[in-house]
Amino acid sequence: EAQVTQNPRYLITVTGKKLTVTCSQNMNHEYMSWYRQDPGLGLRQIYYSMNVEVTDKGDVPEGYKVSRKEKRNFPLILESPSPNQTSLYFCASSLYRYNTEAFFGQGTRLTVV
Amino acid sequence: DAKTTQPTSMDCAEGRAANLPCNHSTISGNEYVYWYRQIHSQGPQYIIHGLKNNETNEMASLIITEDRKSSTLILPHATLRDTAVYYCIPRVKETSGSRLTFGEGTQLTVNP
């Protein structure tokens, strides 16, 4: 089954403790991205990657890092999480760089205390 | 990207057609209209997209006006599982950085 898998689904952590949210897709998609969703602000793109070793900032990249060492994986790294990064995070992938028929993961609800 | 206007909320009876409008009067000639939906806190799900012709797939139909300034997503026989927020997203298909700009969308509630 074609899917985008994120882990963990729920995470509560403390300020400053580094964490990684994993994202994996099994569709051989080139394009992957991360979004965060906050009440009243909608979905905003954090980072995206057009292929292996090619990443770029989205609209709200501050406080986040990403890497794309393999085509299928696109982890989101919070080196020093802060409470304002408490949010619902989604990973997405699509077949081509220009193709916006995106597939989304089920989301990771992160709480930073 | 063109700005969109969608009703904040709509209700529909189960089994009836749900017609969700979207105004995109500033849409440019090379922008497609994409529709996604998000069932409560789940990842958004692609529904359909079109440029100027009406489109239909297994999930829905998309009607785009001749002047392309508005469109309507039609769910022909709404079920309770169609309760979700529906987003209308004009987007240039051939461009780099396939960021999807989600607005507020329309909360569709399908009632038994």
Write the layout of secondary structure elements.
The complex is a heterodimer of chains A (113) and B (112).
Chain A: E1 4-7, E2 10-13, E3 19-25, E4 31-38, E5 42-51, E6 54-57, E7 65-66, E8 76-78, E9 87-94, E10 103-104, E11 108-112
Parallel strand pairs in A: 2-11
Antiparallel strand pairs in A: 1-3, 3-8, 4-5, 4-9, 5-6, 7-8, 9-10, 9-11
Chain B: E1 9-13, E2 18-23, E3 31-38, E4 45-50, E5 55-56, E6 61-64, E7 70-75, E8 84-92, E9 106-111
Parallel strand pairs in B: 1-9
Antiparallel strand pairs in B: 2-7, 3-4, 3-8, 5-6, 6-7, 8-9
Structure, briefly:
The complex is a heterodimer of chains A (113) and B (112). Chain A has 113 residues and is an all-beta fold. Chain A is 0% helix and 50% strand.
Describe the fold and architecture.
The complex is a heterodimer of chains A (113) and B (112). Chain A is mainly beta. Chain A is 0% helix and 50% strand. In chain A, strands 2, 4, 5, 6, 9, 10 and 11 form a 7-stranded mixed sheet that branches. In chain A, strands 1-3-8-7 form a 4-stranded antiparallel sheet, with no helix packed on it. In chain A, β5 (42-51) and β6 (54-57) form a beta hairpin. Chain A is globular. The relative contact order of chain A is 0.33. Helix content of chain B is 0%, strand content 46%. Chain B contains no helices and 9 strands. In chain B, β3 (31-38) and β4 form a beta hairpin.
Ends apart, CA distance between termini of chain A: 36 Å
Mean model confidence by pLDDT of chain B: 92
Count every helix of chain B, treating DSSP H or I runs of 4 or more residues as helices.
0
Q: Catalogue the unreliable spans of chain B.
A: none
Tell me the structural class of chain A.
mainly beta
What would you call the shape of chain A?
A: globular
Beta-strand proportion of chain B: over 45%
The total of beta strands of chain B comes to: 9
Major β-sheet profile of chain B:
5 strands, mixed
Order of helices and strands of chain B: EEEEEEEEE
Number of E-type strands of chain A = 11
The chain pair with the largest interface is: A-B, 27 and 21 residues
Helix content of chain A: under 10%
Rg of chain A, nearest Å: 13 Å
Work out the helix count of chain A.
0
Global mean pLDDT of chain A = 93
Ranges of chain A where pLDDT stays below 50 over 5 or more residues in a row are none
Largest sheet: spatial strand order of chain B: 1-9-8-3-4
Order of helices and strands of chain A: EEEEEEEEEEE
Q: What is the alpha-carbon Rg of chain B in Å?
A: 13 Å
